[in-house]
Amino acid sequence: MMGWTEEGVPMPIDVIGRPFSAVETALYVYELPVAGLEVGATVIVPPALLTRRVERTTGYVDVWPGGCHLEAGATVVFGFTVWPDVKMSQVDELVLNMDKSSRDSASIAPVVSLWSQESGDWEQVSVGWGEHSIPRAGAYVVPPGEVLVRLEASEEWPAAVENLTLTIKGRQ
Fold first, then answer.
1. Any idea where the domains of the chain sit in the sequence?
2. What is the pLDDT of residues 94-110, one digit of tens each?
3. Nearest Cα to 148, choosing from 85, 75, 48, 64?
4. Full-prediction pTM beyond 0.90?
5. Taking the alpha carbons of 134, 128, 123, 44 in that order, is the dihedral positive or negative?
6. DSSP 152-172
7. What is the pLDDT of residues 58-107, one digit of tens each?
8. Fold classified for 42-171
């Protein structure tokens, strides 16, 4: 922990024989002990601790921070990666939140599929707009902590997703 203070500066300094002005500011640096989590402790990895990147697209896809627009028939694959310092030995729950864009009221929810490490293939999950708990969450979190999400717009209608996030719950 670090911080600056202008009160109670421990070392007053004077310049002898010359005019001077003093600004009394001190920088304090403290090392704080940090305890690790116990093995088996519950861990929640919120969206802020996952980085999102575009793996690939087909058709016209416009991506922005948090969301995307897919023209009819287009697909996008996102990779969500847990920060390296977050370690989980068991995944208990995967929560996917997909918000509809307020700019495009005609938008239909895209088809959502997750890459399964168990089957080695894409598995469609039954989700629409809103927050959904995904069954068999551990099958979709690929070591070292990555989830691949594929969105597919229907052949007839575009899809506009304002916000797409994941939360991972599990054990240390």
1. 42-171
2. 999 999 987 766 678 99
3. 75
4. no
5. negative
6. E--SSS-EEEEEEEEEEEEE-
7. 999 999 998 999 999 999 999 999 887 777 778 899 999 999 987 766 67
8. Jelly Rolls (2.60.120)
